[in-house]
Protein backbone atom coordinates (compact mmCIF):
# COMPACT_ATOMS: atom_id res chain seq x y z
CA UNK A 1 0.00 0.00 0.00
CA UNK A 2 1.40 3.36 -1.08
CA UNK A 3 -0.11 6.58 0.27
CA UNK A 4 0.85 10.07 -0.84
CA UNK A 5 -0.14 13.03 1.31
CA UNK A 6 -0.76 16.28 -0.54
CA UNK A 7 -0.23 19.45 1.48
CA UNK A 8 -0.20 22.85 -0.21
CA UNK A 9 1.14 26.01 1.43
CA UNK A 10 0.98 28.38 -1.52
CA UNK A 11 0.87 32.16 -1.02
CA UNK A 12 0.63 31.87 2.74
CA UNK A 13 1.02 35.09 4.70
CA UNK A 14 4.69 35.18 5.80
CA UNK A 15 5.35 31.97 3.89
CA UNK A 16 4.89 28.23 4.51
CA UNK A 17 5.27 26.57 7.90
CA UNK A 18 6.64 23.36 6.34
CA UNK A 19 4.85 21.25 8.95
CA UNK A 20 1.29 20.10 9.65
CA UNK A 21 0.39 18.26 12.86
CA UNK A 22 -2.69 16.48 11.50
CA UNK A 23 -0.89 14.88 8.56
CA UNK A 24 2.00 13.87 10.82
CA UNK A 25 -0.43 12.17 13.21
CA UNK A 26 -2.26 10.32 10.41
CA UNK A 27 1.03 9.10 9.01
CA UNK A 28 2.16 7.89 12.42
CA UNK A 29 -1.01 5.85 12.97
CA UNK A 30 -0.81 4.31 9.50
CA UNK A 31 2.83 3.33 9.94
CA UNK A 32 2.13 1.84 13.37
CA UNK A 33 -0.88 -0.24 12.32
CA UNK A 34 -0.12 -1.32 8.75
CA UNK A 35 2.64 -3.51 7.39
CA UNK A 36 4.26 -3.01 4.01
CA UNK A 37 3.13 0.61 3.79
CA UNK A 38 4.97 3.40 2.00
CA UNK A 39 4.07 7.00 2.82
CA UNK A 40 5.35 10.05 0.99
CA UNK A 41 4.56 13.75 0.96
CA UNK A 42 4.06 16.26 -1.83
CA UNK A 43 4.34 19.78 -0.47
CA UNK A 44 4.08 22.58 -3.04
CA UNK A 45 4.82 26.05 -1.65
CA UNK A 46 4.62 28.00 -4.94
CA UNK A 47 2.13 27.99 -7.80
CA UNK A 48 4.99 27.02 -10.11
CA UNK A 49 5.33 23.75 -8.15
CA UNK A 50 1.89 22.48 -9.17
CA UNK A 51 3.00 20.98 -12.49
CA UNK A 52 5.89 19.24 -10.73
CA UNK A 53 3.41 17.73 -8.26
CA UNK A 54 1.38 16.27 -11.09
CA UNK A 55 4.45 14.58 -12.53
CA UNK A 56 5.54 13.31 -9.11
CA UNK A 57 2.14 11.72 -8.47
CA UNK A 58 2.38 9.88 -11.78
CA UNK A 59 5.91 8.76 -10.93
CA UNK A 60 5.12 7.49 -7.42
CA UNK A 61 1.85 5.82 -8.53
CA UNK A 62 0.29 5.73 -5.05
CA UNK A 63 -2.81 3.75 -4.18
CA UNK A 64 -4.22 6.75 -2.32
CA UNK A 65 -3.69 10.48 -2.68
CA UNK A 66 -4.79 12.11 0.59
CA UNK A 67 -5.01 15.91 0.53
CA UNK A 68 -5.23 18.31 3.46
CA UNK A 69 -6.97 21.62 2.83
CA UNK A 70 -7.92 24.91 4.38
CA UNK A 71 -10.42 27.24 2.71
CA UNK A 72 -7.68 29.40 1.17
CA UNK A 73 -5.87 26.41 -0.31
CA UNK A 74 -8.84 24.47 -1.68
CA UNK A 75 -8.62 25.89 -5.20
CA UNK A 76 -5.06 24.50 -5.45
CA UNK A 77 -6.21 21.12 -4.13
CA UNK A 78 -9.00 21.15 -6.71
CA UNK A 79 -6.53 21.78 -9.50
CA UNK A 80 -4.25 18.95 -8.40
CA UNK A 81 -6.95 16.37 -7.61
CA UNK A 82 -8.52 16.84 -11.03
CA UNK A 83 -5.21 15.75 -12.58
CA UNK A 84 -4.74 12.57 -10.52
CA UNK A 85 -5.00 9.42 -12.69
CA UNK A 86 -8.38 7.68 -12.45
CA UNK A 87 -6.99 4.47 -10.96
CA UNK A 88 -5.79 6.28 -7.81
CA UNK A 89 -8.21 6.76 -4.90
CA UNK A 90 -8.47 10.41 -3.82
CA UNK A 91 -9.57 11.78 -0.46
CA UNK A 92 -9.43 15.24 1.12
CA UNK A 93 -9.54 16.18 4.80
CA UNK A 94 -8.74 19.11 7.02
CA UNK A 95 -10.72 22.07 8.37
CA UNK A 96 -12.30 22.93 5.01
CA UNK A 97 -13.94 19.54 4.43
CA UNK A 98 -15.04 19.42 8.08
CA UNK A 99 -16.66 22.85 7.98
CA UNK A 100 -17.96 22.57 4.43
CA UNK A 101 -18.31 18.91 3.42
CA UNK A 102 -20.38 19.94 0.40
CA UNK A 103 -17.07 20.89 -1.20
CA UNK A 104 -16.92 17.31 -2.52
CA UNK A 105 -19.43 18.44 -5.16
CA UNK A 106 -16.87 20.91 -6.51
CA UNK A 107 -14.39 18.19 -7.50
CA UNK A 108 -16.00 15.35 -9.48
CA UNK A 109 -12.63 13.56 -9.44
CA UNK A 110 -12.60 13.48 -5.62
CA UNK A 111 -13.60 10.03 -4.33
CA UNK A 112 -14.08 10.92 -0.67
CA UNK A 113 -13.77 13.54 2.05
CA UNK A 114 -13.12 13.16 5.77
CA UNK A 115 -15.09 15.08 8.37
CA UNK A 116 -13.36 15.63 11.71
CA UNK A 117 -10.40 13.67 13.04
CA UNK A 118 -8.91 11.46 10.35
CA UNK A 119 -6.55 9.01 12.05
CA UNK A 120 -8.90 6.04 12.30
CA UNK A 121 -11.12 6.74 9.27
CA UNK A 122 -7.95 6.90 7.15
CA UNK A 123 -6.63 3.69 8.68
CA UNK A 124 -9.91 1.86 7.97
CA UNK A 125 -9.98 3.19 4.41
CA UNK A 126 -6.41 2.02 3.73
CA UNK A 127 -7.18 -1.41 5.18
CA UNK A 128 -10.37 -1.76 3.13
CA UNK A 129 -8.73 -0.71 -0.14
CA UNK A 130 -5.73 -2.94 0.52
CA UNK A 131 -7.95 -5.96 1.25
CA UNK A 132 -10.48 -5.27 -1.50
CA UNK A 133 -13.32 -4.82 1.02
CA UNK A 134 -16.27 -2.41 1.09
CA UNK A 135 -15.19 1.06 2.17
CA UNK A 136 -18.45 2.95 1.70
CA UNK A 137 -19.64 2.64 5.32
CA UNK A 138 -16.62 4.07 7.12
CA UNK A 139 -17.69 6.62 9.73
CA UNK A 140 -16.50 10.21 9.19
CA UNK A 141 -16.24 9.69 5.42
CA UNK A 142 -18.45 10.93 2.61
CA UNK A 143 -17.88 8.57 -0.32
CA UNK A 144 -18.70 9.06 -3.99
CA UNK A 145 -20.44 5.91 -5.28
CA UNK A 146 -22.16 5.44 -8.64
CA UNK A 147 -22.65 9.17 -9.05
CA UNK A 148 -24.08 9.66 -5.55
CA UNK A 149 -22.54 10.74 -2.25
CA UNK A 150 -22.76 8.30 0.66
CA UNK A 151 -22.83 10.49 3.77
CA UNK A 152 -21.74 8.43 6.76
CA UNK A 153 -22.21 9.51 10.36
CA UNK A 154 -19.20 10.55 12.42
CA UNK A 155 -17.64 8.63 15.30
CA UNK A 156 -16.83 10.26 18.67
CA UNK A 157 -13.73 12.40 19.05
CA UNK A 158 -10.69 10.44 20.21
CA UNK A 159 -11.15 10.52 23.99
CA UNK A 160 -7.66 9.45 25.05
CA UNK A 161 -5.07 11.34 23.02
CA UNK A 162 -2.26 9.42 24.69
CA UNK A 163 -3.26 6.33 22.67
CA UNK A 164 -1.94 8.02 19.54
CA UNK A 165 1.69 7.43 18.55
CA UNK A 166 4.16 10.29 18.39
CA UNK A 167 3.71 12.42 15.28
CA UNK A 168 5.63 11.27 12.23
CA UNK A 169 8.19 14.05 12.45
CA UNK A 170 10.30 12.45 9.72
CA UNK A 171 7.58 12.77 7.07
CA UNK A 172 8.42 16.46 6.76
CA UNK A 173 11.86 17.96 6.45
CA UNK A 174 11.61 18.97 10.09
CA UNK A 175 15.00 20.63 10.41
CA UNK A 176 14.05 22.91 7.52
CA UNK A 177 10.76 23.66 9.23
CA UNK A 178 12.58 24.48 12.46
CA UNK A 179 14.81 26.93 10.62
CA UNK A 180 11.89 28.46 8.71
CA UNK A 181 12.19 31.94 10.20
CA UNK A 182 15.89 31.60 10.87
CA UNK A 183 15.13 31.41 14.58
CA UNK A 184 15.28 27.65 15.32
CA UNK A 185 11.71 27.15 16.57
CA UNK A 186 9.95 23.79 16.87
CA UNK A 187 6.14 23.71 16.64
CA UNK A 188 4.32 21.37 19.02
CA UNK A 189 0.74 20.62 20.15
CA UNK A 190 -0.35 19.45 23.60
CA UNK A 191 -4.11 19.96 23.24
CA UNK A 192 -6.92 19.46 20.76
CA UNK A 193 -9.88 21.81 20.63
CA UNK A 194 -10.98 25.13 22.07
CA UNK A 195 -13.89 25.71 24.50
CA UNK A 196 -14.84 29.10 23.05
CA UNK A 197 -17.21 29.86 20.17
CA UNK A 198 -15.87 32.93 18.40
CA UNK A 199 -17.95 33.70 15.32
CA UNK A 200 -14.98 34.05 12.96
CA UNK A 201 -13.31 30.78 13.95
CA UNK A 202 -13.93 27.28 12.61
CA UNK A 203 -13.62 25.71 16.08
CA UNK A 204 -17.34 25.92 16.78
CA UNK A 205 -18.28 24.05 13.61
CA UNK A 206 -15.50 21.49 14.13
CA UNK A 207 -16.62 20.91 17.73
CA UNK A 208 -20.05 19.89 16.40
CA UNK A 209 -18.72 17.63 13.65
CA UNK A 210 -18.33 14.63 15.94
CA UNK A 211 -19.98 13.50 19.20
CA UNK A 212 -18.03 13.52 22.43
CA UNK A 213 -15.75 15.97 24.16
CA UNK A 214 -13.99 18.34 21.79
CA UNK A 215 -11.39 19.84 24.16
CA UNK A 216 -8.89 17.17 25.14
CA UNK A 217 -5.38 17.10 26.53
CA UNK A 218 -2.31 14.94 26.19
CA UNK A 219 -0.99 13.97 29.61
CA UNK A 220 2.12 15.71 30.96
CA UNK A 221 3.97 12.40 30.71
CA UNK A 222 3.08 12.04 27.04
CA UNK A 223 3.94 15.66 26.22
CA UNK A 224 7.34 15.43 27.86
CA UNK A 225 8.10 12.02 26.36
CA UNK A 226 7.55 13.30 22.84
CA UNK A 227 9.43 16.52 23.53
CA UNK A 228 12.36 14.48 24.82
CA UNK A 229 12.25 12.43 21.63
CA UNK A 230 12.40 15.44 19.29
CA UNK A 231 14.86 17.23 21.57
CA UNK A 232 17.36 14.41 21.09
CA UNK A 233 16.74 14.10 17.37
CA UNK A 234 16.61 17.70 16.12
CA UNK A 235 18.45 20.96 16.65
CA UNK A 236 16.21 23.79 17.88
CA UNK A 237 16.39 26.62 20.41
CA UNK A 238 12.75 27.24 21.30
CA UNK A 239 9.30 25.64 21.22
CA UNK A 240 6.14 27.24 19.86
CA UNK A 241 3.06 25.55 21.31
CA UNK A 242 0.36 25.66 18.64
CA UNK A 243 -2.52 24.97 21.06
CA UNK A 244 -5.44 27.39 20.78
CA UNK A 245 -5.11 27.86 24.55
CA UNK A 246 -2.13 26.35 26.35
CA UNK A 247 -2.27 24.35 29.59
CA UNK A 248 -5.92 24.87 30.55
CA UNK A 249 -5.87 21.78 32.79
CA UNK A 250 -4.34 22.72 36.15
CA UNK A 251 -3.21 19.21 37.11
CA UNK A 252 -1.40 18.68 33.79
CA UNK A 253 0.10 22.17 33.99
CA UNK A 254 1.51 21.58 37.48
CA UNK A 255 3.25 18.37 36.45
CA UNK A 256 4.47 19.90 33.18
CA UNK A 257 5.86 22.99 34.91
CA UNK A 258 7.62 20.86 37.53
CA UNK A 259 9.30 18.52 35.04
CA UNK A 260 9.87 20.68 31.94
CA UNK A 261 12.84 22.72 33.29
CA UNK A 262 14.62 19.52 34.32
CA UNK A 263 13.93 17.49 31.18
CA UNK A 264 13.74 20.00 28.31
CA UNK A 265 14.89 23.36 29.63
CA UNK A 266 14.28 25.43 26.51
CA UNK A 267 12.25 28.64 26.26
CA UNK A 268 8.76 28.40 24.81
CA UNK A 269 5.93 30.63 23.64
CA UNK A 270 2.23 29.89 23.97
CA UNK A 271 -1.30 31.23 23.45
CA UNK A 272 -3.28 32.38 26.48
CA UNK A 273 -6.84 33.56 26.95
CA UNK A 274 -7.62 36.81 28.72
CA UNK A 275 -10.66 35.47 30.60
CA UNK A 276 -8.82 32.57 32.27
CA UNK A 277 -5.49 34.26 32.86
CA UNK A 278 -4.37 34.31 36.50
CA UNK A 279 -1.20 35.02 38.43
CA UNK A 280 -0.63 31.42 39.52
CA UNK A 281 -0.81 30.11 35.93
CA UNK A 282 1.51 32.79 34.60
CA UNK A 283 4.01 32.35 37.42
CA UNK A 284 4.09 28.57 36.91
CA UNK A 285 4.61 28.82 33.16
CA UNK A 286 7.26 31.51 33.47
CA UNK A 287 9.19 29.42 36.00
CA UNK A 288 8.99 26.45 33.62
CA UNK A 289 10.62 28.43 30.80
CA UNK A 290 7.89 30.44 29.08
CA UNK A 291 9.25 33.46 27.23
CA UNK A 292 6.10 34.95 25.67
CA UNK A 293 2.33 34.75 25.90
CA UNK A 294 0.12 35.51 22.88
CA UNK A 295 -3.32 37.07 23.39
CA UNK A 296 -6.10 37.18 20.81
CA UNK A 297 -7.32 40.77 20.97
CA UNK A 298 -8.84 40.85 17.45
CA UNK A 299 -10.53 44.24 17.89
CA UNK A 300 -10.04 47.12 20.28
CA UNK A 301 -13.66 48.16 19.90
CA UNK A 302 -15.57 46.52 22.76
CA UNK A 303 -18.98 46.67 21.07
CA UNK A 304 -17.72 45.04 17.87
CA UNK A 305 -15.72 42.44 19.78
CA UNK A 306 -18.69 41.50 21.97
CA UNK A 307 -21.58 41.67 19.48
CA UNK A 308 -19.89 40.61 16.23
CA UNK A 309 -17.05 38.35 17.36
CA UNK A 310 -18.80 36.99 20.50
CA UNK A 311 -15.70 37.61 22.60
CA UNK A 312 -17.01 38.78 25.95
CA UNK A 313 -13.99 40.46 27.43
CA UNK A 314 -13.55 44.13 28.19
CA UNK A 315 -10.58 46.31 27.38
CA UNK A 316 -9.92 46.57 31.11
CA UNK A 317 -9.76 42.78 31.38
CA UNK A 318 -7.30 42.71 28.49
CA UNK A 319 -5.09 45.35 30.09
CA UNK A 320 -5.19 43.54 33.45
CA UNK A 321 -4.16 40.23 31.84
CA UNK A 322 -1.32 41.97 30.00
CA UNK A 323 -0.16 43.67 33.21
CA UNK A 324 -0.17 40.31 35.05
CA UNK A 325 1.81 38.72 32.23
CA UNK A 326 4.44 41.44 32.18
CA UNK A 327 4.67 41.34 35.99
CA UNK A 328 5.37 37.62 35.74
CA UNK A 329 8.27 38.40 33.40
CA UNK A 330 6.63 37.34 30.12
CA UNK A 331 6.80 39.13 26.82
CA UNK A 332 3.40 39.80 25.23
CA UNK A 333 2.22 39.35 21.67
CA UNK A 334 -1.18 40.58 20.50
CA UNK A 335 -3.17 38.97 17.67
CA UNK A 336 -5.34 41.49 15.84
CA UNK A 337 -7.65 41.70 12.83
CA UNK A 338 -8.76 44.43 10.49
CA UNK A 339 -11.55 44.47 7.91
CA UNK A 340 -14.09 42.80 10.20
CA UNK A 341 -17.81 42.94 9.38
CA UNK A 342 -19.34 46.16 10.76
CA UNK A 343 -15.88 47.65 11.28
CA UNK A 344 -15.02 51.18 10.19
CA UNK A 345 -11.78 53.11 9.96
CA UNK A 346 -12.52 54.61 13.39
CA UNK A 347 -13.16 51.19 14.93
CA UNK A 348 -9.94 49.83 13.43
CA UNK A 349 -8.10 52.70 15.08
CA UNK A 350 -9.61 51.58 18.41
CA UNK A 351 -7.52 48.41 17.94
CA UNK A 352 -4.42 50.52 17.34
CA UNK A 353 -5.12 52.61 20.44
CA UNK A 354 -5.68 49.55 22.65
CA UNK A 355 -2.37 48.11 21.44
CA UNK A 356 -0.66 51.41 22.26
CA UNK A 357 -1.91 51.01 25.83
CA UNK A 358 -0.76 47.40 25.92
CA UNK A 359 2.68 48.19 24.48
CA UNK A 360 3.18 44.63 23.24
CA UNK A 361 6.56 43.19 22.40
CA UNK A 362 5.03 41.81 19.19
CA UNK A 363 1.81 42.80 17.42
CA UNK A 364 0.43 40.61 14.66
CA UNK A 365 -2.40 41.71 12.36
CA UNK A 366 -4.43 39.84 9.77
CA UNK A 367 -7.18 40.84 7.41
CA UNK A 368 -10.44 39.06 8.20
CA UNK A 369 -11.15 36.00 6.04
CA UNK A 370 -14.71 34.56 5.94
CA UNK A 371 -14.34 30.83 6.62
CA UNK A 372 -17.15 28.57 5.43
CA UNK A 373 -19.07 27.02 8.28
CA UNK A 374 -18.61 30.01 10.60
CA UNK A 375 -21.30 32.38 11.81
CA UNK A 376 -19.58 35.41 10.29
CA UNK A 377 -19.34 33.69 6.88
CA UNK A 378 -23.11 33.32 6.76
CA UNK A 379 -23.63 36.84 8.10
CA UNK A 380 -21.36 38.36 5.42
CA UNK A 381 -23.34 36.63 2.67
CA UNK A 382 -26.70 37.67 4.14
CA UNK A 383 -25.60 41.31 4.29
CA UNK A 384 -24.15 41.26 0.79
CA UNK A 385 -20.58 41.87 1.92
CA UNK A 386 -19.22 38.72 0.35
CA UNK A 387 -19.88 36.77 -2.84
CA UNK A 388 -18.98 33.09 -2.23
CA UNK A 389 -18.88 32.50 -5.98
CA UNK A 390 -16.12 35.05 -6.54
CA UNK A 391 -12.84 33.17 -7.10
CA UNK A 392 -9.73 34.19 -5.23
CA UNK A 393 -7.54 36.48 -7.28
CA UNK A 394 -4.47 34.89 -8.80
CA UNK A 395 -1.58 35.23 -6.39
CA UNK A 396 -3.92 35.94 -3.46
CA UNK A 397 -1.93 35.81 -0.20
CA UNK A 398 -3.96 34.55 2.72
CA UNK A 399 -5.34 37.27 4.99
CA UNK A 400 -3.34 40.07 3.39
CA UNK A 401 -6.22 41.52 1.39
CA UNK A 402 -9.96 41.71 2.01
CA UNK A 403 -12.65 39.69 0.24
CA UNK A 404 -15.46 41.85 1.62
CA UNK A 405 -17.25 44.72 -0.06
CA UNK A 406 -18.56 46.95 2.73
CA UNK A 407 -20.00 50.41 1.97
CA UNK A 408 -18.48 51.98 5.10
CA UNK A 409 -15.05 50.32 5.01
CA UNK A 410 -13.71 49.85 1.48
CA UNK A 411 -11.14 47.24 0.48
CA UNK A 412 -8.71 50.06 -0.22
CA UNK A 413 -9.15 51.52 3.27
CA UNK A 414 -8.88 48.07 4.86
CA UNK A 415 -5.59 47.55 3.03
CA UNK A 416 -4.24 50.88 4.25
CA UNK A 417 -5.23 50.15 7.85
CA UNK A 418 -3.60 46.72 7.60
CA UNK A 419 -0.33 48.02 6.20
CA UNK A 420 -0.08 50.90 8.68
CA UNK A 421 -1.19 48.97 11.75
CA UNK A 422 2.21 48.03 13.19
CA UNK A 423 3.74 51.41 12.43
CA UNK A 424 0.87 53.20 14.17
CA UNK A 425 1.11 50.95 17.23
CA UNK A 426 4.85 51.34 17.79
CA UNK A 427 5.67 54.77 16.35
CA UNK A 428 5.50 56.57 19.71
CA UNK A 429 7.66 54.24 21.79
CA UNK A 430 9.81 52.05 19.53
CA UNK A 431 11.03 53.54 16.27
CA UNK A 432 12.92 50.42 15.16
CA UNK A 433 9.81 48.29 15.60
CA UNK A 434 7.64 50.85 13.83
CA UNK A 435 9.96 50.87 10.83
CA UNK A 436 10.24 47.09 10.86
CA UNK A 437 6.48 46.63 10.84
CA UNK A 438 6.08 49.23 8.11
CA UNK A 439 8.40 47.12 5.95
CA UNK A 440 7.01 43.65 6.64
CA UNK A 441 3.40 44.76 6.15
CA UNK A 442 4.17 46.66 2.96
CA UNK A 443 3.61 45.12 -0.47
CA UNK A 444 7.26 44.04 -0.37
CA UNK A 445 6.98 42.47 3.09
CA UNK A 446 7.07 38.84 1.97
CA UNK A 447 10.27 39.49 0.01
CA UNK A 448 11.87 41.23 3.01
CA UNK A 449 11.13 38.28 5.28
CA UNK A 450 12.66 35.85 2.80
CA UNK A 451 15.92 37.73 2.42
CA UNK A 452 16.39 38.27 6.16
CA UNK A 453 15.98 34.62 7.21
CA UNK A 454 19.70 33.86 7.04
CA UNK A 455 20.74 36.92 9.04
CA UNK A 456 17.84 37.14 11.50
CA UNK A 457 19.75 35.65 14.42
CA UNK A 458 22.49 38.22 13.89
CA UNK A 459 19.95 41.03 13.75
CA UNK A 460 18.28 39.71 16.89
CA UNK A 461 21.53 40.03 18.85
CA UNK A 462 22.83 43.27 17.35
CA UNK A 463 19.74 45.49 16.94
CA UNK A 464 17.94 46.49 20.10
CA UNK A 465 14.27 45.61 19.79
CA UNK A 466 14.61 43.32 16.78
CA UNK A 467 14.37 40.12 18.79
CA UNK A 468 11.24 41.24 20.57
CA UNK A 469 9.68 42.32 17.27
CA UNK A 470 10.15 39.19 15.21
CA UNK A 471 11.44 36.39 17.46
Salient structural properties:
2 domains, Rossmann fold, seven-stranded mixed β-sheet, globular, alpha/beta, 19 helices, 471 residues, pyruvate-formate lyase- activating enzyme, disordered C terminus
Structure description:
With 471 residues, the chain is α/β, with parallel strands linked by helices. The chain has two domains: 2-151, 3-Layer(aba) Sandwich (Rossmann fold); 173-470, pyruvate-formate lyase- activating enzyme. Helix content is 39%, strand content 15%. It has 19 helices and 15 strands. The protein has helices spanning 21-33, 50-60, 74-81, 95-99, 119-131, 174-178, 203-207, 220-233, 250-263, 279-288, 302-307, 315-327, 345-358, 375-382, 411-426, 431-440, 445-452, 456-462, 466-470; strands at residues 2-7, 38-42, 64-68, 89-93, 112-114, 141-145, 148-151, 185-188, 191-192, 216-217, 238-241, 268-272, 290-298, 331-338, 362-367. The strands form three sheets. A seven-stranded mixed beta sheet has the order 2-1-3-4-5-6-7, with helices on both faces. Helix 13 packs parallel to helix 15 and helix 15 (411-426) runs antiparallel to helix 16. The longest helix has 16 residues, at 411-426. The chain is globular. 41% of the residues are buried.
